[in-house]
Design brief:
The chain is of the alpha+beta class. The chain has three domains: 239 residues, 2-Layer Sandwich (BirA Bifunctional Protein, domain 2); 178 residues; 147 residues, Threonyl-tRNA Synthetase, Chain A, domain 2. The protein contains 19 helices and 18 strands. Strands 1, 2, 3, 4, 5, 6, 7, 8 and 9 form a nine-stranded mixed sheet that branches. It has a four-stranded antiparallel sheet with strand order 12-13-18-17, covered by helices on one side. The chain has a three-stranded antiparallel sheet with strand order 14-15-16. Helix 8 packs antiparallel against helix 11, helix 9 crosses helix 11 and helix 17 crosses helix 18. It is globular, with a radius of gyration of 27 Å. The site of adenosine-5'-triphosphate (ATP) has 17 residues, from strand 3, strand 8, strand 9 and helix 7.
Length: 603
């Protein structure tokens, strides 16, 4: 008995000793890459500077885009960092074992220095060497680019992995959708990537299990991207002289796997927050809600507490942070937390991260007071909703339209209304939900995108006309035309685009004619939600900084073999170009060096 206790004690002790903390992992990573000649650089703000196309920094490479495109980095051509990231595109996934809205990404970059051989060797050494993470190589699986009509199979990566001892059956060959990055724009650098996965199934993976054929048992922890091609305007690819490496390793996921945890919620940068939420919850069986509350409030703390922090509002990042906080409060009610609780969660998050992220400490008061204000505001909304429910409770029933309003305006889920012993017309509720889904999706997307504040009919028409103009300019002047800016009022559209010289009268007439033809042809305008990769494959114009699998909305004018324009855009647009009337260009002028500006109207 005593011996058994002693053994337990030793085991616990040994276990504690081998646990790696987030801070240790950050240090190990950057120290390892510093030992390979990399400069350690600071992570950037969560709110991107000089990049209105995305709301948040979503990967370590994001602040480095100009350098990956060729500018010289002041710290040299081998860099490493720890970058905080927000991925709103992953919110639906949150609650599972591996996706967080806020996470940290460790990364290393070669700007025209080393390439695949060294990058893969570094990754392997860091993961498996007893001096570093000491992961059992048998638990690592690999994916590589399978090759297609544009680029061949990534044999170089395969051969490197084989030479390091990874068996062939642990390497999965996957298409562009999974193992390809870029280009950031219609043309530019791009290339294959190779990803490292950890086996989370029982014991060791069987002979035929790999991340391609047994997905649920493998978790991606690290991605090495190789920018080796340039995509040209005609759709062809050629090999780049300067090749770059861009890698990203998830801090929380890696911490979880090396410490033998099932989920990221057990890591030392999440657990104290999770534990606090868990302790406050009355209903402790709803672990998903507890996870979501933890995730959302942790992310909101970082967004408000950033050096370039934003507070809850109805636009852009402010809207995201409001959504995160309100959805956490609603989930809180679901698990029986009724009193004020979110400032306490923020305080715990600040305490946990203050040694690493000074901005949280500095902005502590702001974070806590914004959390209180938002909680109070949302409480008022919820209380009003509660009153309405009570009124209907006295009548004993509620129609579907009102139930839907309670859901959409006050955030009451149908089940909650039903629980109040009221008869609810659920069929009508769902009909209403369906009707509003499209509308609210467009509304939300606009909020995410910013920009168009005015949705009047004319603005919508001019917005569609802008797409036609963009496409027509490319047809007349060439595929180097890229949008540099756009501004629409209810009177006119203004469109800035890259072009070195003044347009001739002849060119302007041609552009105008093309747009008017597209209007006369009464082309249908439709949209689809696609991954950035798919959107690119289909030749959609737009900003492609959204890397890494985010969903985007793509608007297409025309169909089948008569597609006039295809562009990533939040909308809204008219349903048919026939609605636009007559398009005419008022003015063409210089906007800045290499950028022209066109003002047009619809009559
Ligand atoms: P997944 O397919 O699992 O969502 P991903 O392909 O989106 O991953 P990358 O975009 O390649 O991941 O990001 C690089 C690394 O960042 C991943 O290998 C992973 O470790 C980590 N990562 C990505 N998204 C998240 C997230 N939402 N939460 C935590 N870590 C993440
Ligand atoms: Mg993802």
């Amino acid at each position: 008995m005593v011996a058994a206790l002693l053994l337990d004690f030793i085991l616990i002790f040994v276990k504690i000793e081998v646990m790696i903390t987030a801070q240790q992992l950050r240090e190990k990573y950057t120290t390892f890459f510093a030992s390979k000649g990399h400069q350690i650089i600071d992570g950037a703000s969560l709110i991107p500077e000089n990049d209105p196309s995305v709301l948040f920094t979503t990967a370590g490479m994001h602040p480095l885009v100009p350098f990956l495109l060729g500018s010289k980095h002041p710290s040299g051509n081998k860099l490493t960092s720890c970058q905080r990231c927000i991925r709103t595109g992953d919110i639906e996934e949150v609650g599972d074992d591996t996706h967080l809205t806020f996470f940290e990404m460790l990364g290393n970059w070669s700007l025209g220095d080393y390439f695949k051989d060294d990058a893969i060797e570094y990754s392997w050494e860091f993961l498996t060497s007893p001096k570093w993470l000491n992961i059992n190589p048998q638990k690592i699986g690999i994916t590589v680019f399978a090759g297609d009509q544009d680029a061949s199979v990534d044999e170089e990566s395969v051969n490197k992995w084989l030479s390091l001892g990874v068996p062939q059956h642990k390497i999965a060959y996957l298409p562009k959708e999974n193992n390809w990055w870029g280009p950031a724009g219609q043309t530019g650098p791009c290339g294959p990537d190779t990803e490292m996965f950890y086996y989370v199934g029982d014991g060791l993976p069987s002979e035929n299990s790999n991340p391609g054929n047994d997905e649920s048992n493998w978790v991606e922890i690290w991605n090495d991207v190789f920018m080796q091609y340039s995509k040209e305007a005609d759709g062809s690819y050629f090999a780049l002289a300067q090749k770059n490496v861009d890698t990203g390793m998830g801090l929380e996921r890696t911490l979880a796997v090396i410490n033998g945890y099932q989920t990221i919620y057990e890591t030392d940068v999440v657990k104290p927050i999770y534990d606090l939420v868990y302790s406050l919850a009355q209903d402790k069986s709803n672990l998903k809600a507890i996870r979501i509350i933890t995730d959302h409030l942790r992310a909101a703390t970082f967004i408000i507490g950033d050096e370039r922090g934003v507070i809850p509002s109805n636009t852009d990042q402010g809207y995201v942070v409001r959504r995160l906080i309100r959805s956490a409060i609603r989930r809180g009610r679901e698990v029986g937390i009724v009193n004020s609780f979110i400032p306490a969660i923020a305080a715990e998050t600040i305490k946990l991260y203050a040694p690493t992220y000074n901005c949280l400490k500095q902005n502590q008061q702001k974070i806590l007071s914004e959390f209180s204000i938002e909680e109070e505001k949302f409480k008022k909304v919820l209380d009003r909703g509660e009153e309405i429910i009570q009124e209907y409770a006295r009548q004993g029933s509620i129609d579907g339209v009102t139930a839907f309003k309670l859901y959409s305006t006050y955030g009451f889920p149908l089940e909650e209304i039903q629980r109040s012993n009221i008869q609810v017309d659920a069929e009508q509720f769902f009909a209403e939900l369906k009707k509003h889904q499209e509308l609210s999706r467009q509304g939300a997307e606009q909020k995410f995108k910013g920009g168009l504040a005015d949705n009047s009919e004319m603005v919508t028409k001019l917005h569609t006309a802008t797409h036609l103009l963009h496409a027509a300019l490319r047809k007349v002047l060439g595929e180097h035309i890229a949008q540099k800016g756009s501004n629409i009022t209810s009177e006119r559209l203004r469109f800035d685009f890259s072009h070195p010289i003044k347009l001739t009268t002849d060119e302007l007439t041609k552009v105008e004619k093309l747009v008017n033809e597209a209007i006369q042809q009464k082309l249908a305008v439709s949209w689809q939600e696609l991954s950035v990769e798919k959107a690119k494959e289909q030749g959609a114009l737009g900003l492609f900084n959204q890397k890494y699998g985010e969903l985007v909305k793509v608007y297409t004018v025309g169909k089948d073999d008569r597609i006039f324009s295809r562009e990533i855009c939040g909308g809204p647009h008219v349903a048919n170009t026939g609605e636009l009337g007559h398009f005419s260009i008022l003015k063409e002028e210089a906007s800045s060096a290499g950028v022209r500006r066109i003002k047009s109207i619809l009559k």
